[in-house]
Amino acid sequence: MKHETCCVCDMQFSIPDNVYKARLDDGKSFYCPNGHAQYYTKAIIPGLQKRIRDLTASLNAKESNRFHWKTKAEQLARRLSATKGVVTKLRKQYLKKGKK
Ligand SMILES: [Zn+2]
Fold this sequence. Notes:
There is one protein chain. This protein has helices at about 15-25, 50-100; strands spanning about 1-5, 10-15, 30, 35-40. It is α+β, with helices and mostly antiparallel strands. The protein starts with a strand and ends with a helix. The mean pLDDT is about 90.
């Protein structure tokens, strides 16, 4: 049960959970025991919850993409470092041969 207070007469009353969730989702009116219409305002802006879900999904996708490219950059940095080591080793061998 969800406990509410009427915004008009301040009477306290309870709403079954299923009715509370339904009114929260659809924004339709319900009434206090004195007959004052009530509604939850977050459903007033149509599509707001969908927009939040879409933006969250988009953010998660971007985060996943960022992680992929960060991992790829780290792999390339390790390969570059290894390649630099090989080049340095070959350069030293070449210079050593040149001195003989
Ligand atoms: Zn009331």
